[in-house]
Amino acid sequence: MAFSAFQLRFVQLLLVVLGVAFILFQLPSTHKETAPTQEVWGDPGDNFDDIRNETLGVQKVFAINLASRPDKRDNIVLGSSVSNFHVEWIDGVTPDEIDNKSYPYNWNHDQKRTEYAARRAHVNGLQRIVQERLTSAIIMEDDADWDVSLKLQLQSFAHAVRALQSQDTQKIPTQSPYGDDWDILWLGHCGLSCKTDLPFYLTPNDPTIPMPRHFRPLWRDSPIFEGHERPDHSRLVCTASDGVCSMFYAVSYRGAQRILAALSVNPSGLAEEINIGAQFDISLGRMCGNGYLRCFAPFPSITGGFRQAGSKAKSSDINDETGEQAGFSSSGVMYSTMLNINRILKGERTVHATWDDVDVLDVIPGDITMKQGAIYGI
């Protein structure tokens, strides 16, 4: 059957329209979602699995320890071995080892000499990071404790902190699984405050979060964001504006340089701008709040502390405590590595919770899972 001129023209026009539609369908969409997109764990090309290595995703892990406290070194060596990460040592400092001429000009001498000695040990760790040109490192104190699921917790934290550094982190390659634009990751603390004008990240239903009554006994209250309240079983990650206790933190090379400048070299004007003549953790919090450092932190704290049985004097090398302590104890972590060491060494499948008033008393570590969270406040 012959086509009329009109029918032929219609068919030609239809083919052109279909061809254009096909081409447009093949082009990538330029539409962007307004809600944050989350990475799927294990995507090809990501580096979150680096956190499961022997240095927890940074170049080195350091622990500060006095030569007079080999008992605490035993704790960290054994605990890190069953958790499969490697620790190097930074010598603790005693007041007698410090020449009075080495105190910075702005140090508040109303503080204890042991407090400056402790600060100096942290500064020595930062000096080592700068000297060795480490891109990042973790520094812990020798009374730290951590959950048996530490590496999984750190992977979850890395997702959160990378999302806060950029709204498009899944498309930006990073040298570090934690992202590349941070100075301090304040992983172990006794409480913190957040910059509430900046976005925060919530991970729901984290099974490793203790109830608030078991948080470290200083700042137990959750950071407050207007219009948002942290549910008890959700882990919050934010840009930190202050914190207390420096028992476990990661620091980047840039961050180590800046803290070394502030606490020891004292460039002109810096000490006048930030009141940093205080203990290490107090000074660190002030530098985070001032914006001199870019700091991120979880709430509640990921890591906690461990106390051995016996005299309370065993617990602190800064403060003089007296009296007896009843047995071993851990604070801040749901399934303490230190309290479960014997179970782990015996090859038992389950570990026991730090407290008896929790939802799940015994758990198989491999059964602990983390959900993905989301950014709020954007």
Notes on the protein architecture:
- This protein is an alpha+beta fold.
- The chain has a single domain, classed as Alpha-Beta Complex (Spore Coat Polysaccharide Biosynthesis Protein SpsA, Chain A).
- Helices cover 27% and strands 18% of the residues.
- It has 8 helices and 17 strands.
- Strands 1, 2, 3, 5, 6, 7, 8, 9, 10 and 17 form a 10-stranded mixed beta sheet that branches. Strands 4-11-14 form a 3-stranded antiparallel beta sheet, with no helix packed on it.
- Helix 2 links the parallel strand 1 and strand 2.
- Helix 3 packs across helix 5.
- It is globular, with a radius of gyration of 25 Å.
- About 8% of the residues have low confidence.
- One of its GO terms (molecular function) is transferase activity.
- Belongs to the glycosyltransferase 25 family.
- InterPro entries: Collagen_mod_GT25 (IPR050757), Glyco_trans_25 (IPR002654).
- Keywords: Glycosyltransferase, Membrane, Transferase, Transmembrane, Transmembrane helix.
